[in-house]
Design brief:
Length: 447
């Protein structure tokens, strides 16, 4: 929810009114030094007065490229250049422009409402599933979504649970009658987290699926083709897997696309993979956005070239408000590096006096590793026949169910993935407890 609102804020900042704001030029991309980079990476931007912005490229050789980028953007402003300073003057609003603006802002608001409605729908679905599986009680279901704000407003309008709460046409943005979707989702996840310790039955479908996509090279070799042909087939398999998750109601999918160690592969393969990633981002992001997928990346992205980094950032910004599927691509990622980074941030906090060493525990460290905003993966799949974790999500997989298949990644399809899901559904997740405890909720409950 916060991300949807942040995306709305981001989009509204970009709307050109009569008032100068640096956010107006945030999305401008400049072709400089052989790649496309955000304007902020080649110039400083300042508000000169209420109606003008001053852009100062750090290197005079890119002044022309910045001018070109401004003209090519949809801002409708003409750069006024003197030496290395580019001034953008914003004309006062006409009546017509004011009317257009109203429409643009209305459109942005509608998009945000749709995103929030999706979150609400997903949360309602999760709650219903939890209720069906008896992982939460009717009572918990009835109280879902209550937050302190509502009590302060004296909102008496809610009944017990029920579908109607999630079905307001405005997604609850403007009204007081429905539970806030954030609270709804949080409660559903919290209830699920508690249920993890009391239920022998895993959720019918994993909420979070993590996959090592192995076997592209062998798939290509079997066909006497270069390894990159296998990676290209692997990219097509990624699409099938995303579609599968959307169809089965899986809320999060994390794919291992490129490990920290993969940088050591032959330069030709690394270069080919980079092109493949860039091409996939260019081709697929709009469609993923349309499907309600929120795209994210984990790993040391600063190791990628600027164009790819910019595309990753743009994809994250564009899809930030989506809630049907959280698709995370682990790229230049290593589990050990992830944990080491988390430990370093804690050490920095200790050194700065923000944290005492005694306060460091698993929860604190867990909050600093990648994917901390998602439930831990319920199911891990590795294709390609190898039986190892290969430095993927070492922290996050502590209690994940593991499933391995000989199927090479480019051959993955719904039938194989359904087998994994069926196996997962048959497992008893005990989280360190004993069977009796996880079977009888009353015996293991802590709160
Ligand atoms: C492992 O197979 C696979 C990789 C290192 C690359 C994964 C990349 C893709 C699936 C393609 C594109 C992905 C996205 C997200 C667009 P391997 O090369 O180690 O295979 P092998 O074990 O048979 O040699």
């Amino acid at each position: 929810m916060a991300k949807s609102i942040e995306a709305l804020r981001h989009n509204l900042v970009k709307v050109r009114t009569g008032r100068a704001s640096t956010g107006l030029v945030d999305s401008i991309k400049v072709v400089a030094y052989g790649s496309e980079v955000p304007l902020s990476q080649v110039a400083s931007v300042a508000v000169a007065d209420a109606r003008s912005l001053v852009i100062t490229p750090w290197d005079k050789t890119v002044v022309g490229a910045v001018e070109k980028a401004i003209l090519a953007s949809d801002l409708g402003l003409t750069p006024n250049t003197a030496g290395t300073t580019i001034r953008l003057n914003l004309p006062a609003l006409t009546e017509e422009r004011r009317r257009d603006l109203t429409k643009v802002v209305h459109g942005e608001g509608e998009d945000a409402k749709v995103a929030i409605r999706n979150i609400r729908r997903d949360a309602n679905h999760q709650v219903k599933e939890l209720l069906k599986d008896k992982q939460i009680t009717e009572d918990e279901c009835a109280h879902r979504g209550r937050d302190p704000e509502d009590h302060r407003r004296g909102d008496q309008g809610r009944g017990r649970g029920g579908e109607g709460q999630g079905s307001r046409a405005d997604g609850g943005l403007s009204g007081h009658a429905g539970p806030p979707a954030d609270a709804l989702a949080t409660n559903a996840l919290a209830a699920h987290a508690r249920a993890r310790h009391v239920s022998a039955q895993p959720a019918p479908v994993p909420r979070h699926l993590a996959i090592i996509m192995d076997g592209n090279g062998r798939w290509a070799q079997q066909r006497h083709r270069p390894r990159l042909v296998g990676h290209r087939a692997g990219a097509r398999a990624v699409k099938r897997c995303v579609e599968f998750c959307l169809q089965r109601g899986i809320a999060a999918l994390t794919l291992f696309a490129f490990s920290s160690e993969n940088w050591g592969r032959p330069a030709e393969e690394v270069g080919g993979l980079m092109k493949l990633f860039l091409g996939a981002l260019e081709r697929e992001v709009d469609e993923l956005h349309r499907l309600g997928v929120r795209l994210g990346f984990i790993g040391e992205r600063e190791r990628f070239e600027a164009t790819l980094q910019a595309r990753m950032q743009a994809a994250e910004t564009l899809t930030a408000g989506n809630a049907r599927l959280a698709l995370t691509i682990a790229a230049s990622y290593g589990g050990r590096q992830d944990i080491a980074h988390a430990a370093r941030t804690l050490a920095e906090d200790v050194a700065a006096g923000r944290l005492r060493p005694q306060q460091i525990d698993a929860d604190r460290l867990g909050a600093r590793v990648a994917l901390a905003d998602l439930p831990a993966p319920d199911l891990f799949i590795r294709t390609g026949g190898e039986l190892r974790i290969s430095n993927f999500l070492l922290w996050q997989l502590a209690y994940t169910e593991l499933w391995f298949t000989d199927t090479l990644w480019p051959d993955i399809d719904a039938a194989v993935l359904d087998r994994a899901l069926a196996d997962y559904a048959s497992r008893e997740r005990r989280f360190g407890l004993i069977s009796d405890q996880v079977r009888r909720p009353s015996s293991g409950r802590t709160s």
